[in-house]
Amino acid sequence: MLVGFGAGGAIDVVARMLVEGMKDYAPSFIVDNRPGAGGRLALGALKNSPADGTAMILTPASCVAVFPHVYKSLRYDAFKDFAPVTTVCSFPFLITVGPLVPADVRTLADFVKWCAANPKQATYGTAAAGSMLHFTGMSLAKAGRFEFVHLPYGGPGGIQDLIGGRIAATIYPIGTALPHVESGAIRALATTGAQRSPQLADVPTVREAGYPALETNEWFGVFVPANTPAETVTRLNGAIRALVNTDAFKAALAKLAVDPVAETPKEFAQLVKSDFDRWGPIVRASGFTPED
Q1: Residue in 177, 160, 180 with CA at minimum distance from that of residue 91
Q2: What is the pLDDT of residue 38?
Q3: Distance separating alpha carbons of residues 240 and 253, to the nearest angstrom
């Protein structure tokens, strides 16, 4: 199972949970970390792997639904080179602020007003440029009509700069920011999910905060190379869905603040297409041009 990110992150943890629980599918099953280019290198490797059910990838939504709109030249075609197997989990993002932002800024609306009044300090950090996280912040700036400077960290490092008062805000997966919200080091303004997070029941959704266009969830999903036999895809889908629906797996995901979501290949393909169609206009309207 390829993973386009280094060991220790949420997607790596979920991948290792999967391979440990799928011994009936394959007695020997390993995670192959191929970090680099925001997950693109691993997808390029999958494209050239055997289409026999022995090679697969666990990848975030951004790599297949957003990156095709961002990068003029990818090593893969998200719709021609891969066959969708199933989602595994999904999760919202959390918009947080730190000590750089005055304590009386308690809501997302308050923060938008503060950013408009303090343009030189209106900065936000995310894990990566060109990701859903990045464009969620750009969408907030567009809706609020203020300038919002994006700082990509290539990982969770933005949280430490937020705590240190070097940036105003961050947008990260809820599990990344949650411990620091619970400790009181940073403040949560809103989650991007359709419903409030059970981990932060007192934090409103972006829709409740007046910014419904920001509503989104990231997901982790499994793909295999195109031309993998349909019966192999079906078998793999069944093995993953059976595992994801166990109480033990659900409990393990809950510790990461992510929700189990296991779909049929057809349902997953529809989700990929829906997300692809949604993010295209957002990326184009942003005017973002990647450096690589």
Answers
A1: 177
A2: 84
A3: 14
- Rounded-to-integer distance, Cα 99 and Cα 87, Å: 37
- Cβ contacts of 9 within 8 Å, gap of 6 or more: 155
Two tokens, residue 69? 């709109």
d(CA 194, CA 212): 9
Give the integer Cα–Cα distance in Å for 181 and 21: 32
Pairing of strands 169-173, 32-33: unpaired
Cβ burial 10-19 (10 Å sphere, 16+ → b, else e) = bbbbbbbbbb
pLDDT of residue 290: 83
Q: The whole model's pTM is what? A: 0.92
- Encode pLDDT of 87-131 as tens digits: 999 999 999 999 999 999 999 999 999 999 999 999 999 988 899
Q: Going by DSSP bridges, is the β-strand pair 32-33/2-3 parallel, antiparallel, or unpaired?
A: parallel
Residue for token digits 């409740």?
Answer: 208
Angle at 273 between CA 270 and CA 274, to 5 degrees: 85
Say how far apart CA 38 and CA 283 lie, in whole Å: 17
Q: Which residues contact 209 (CB under 8 A, 6 or more apart)?
A: 107, 108, 109, 189, 190
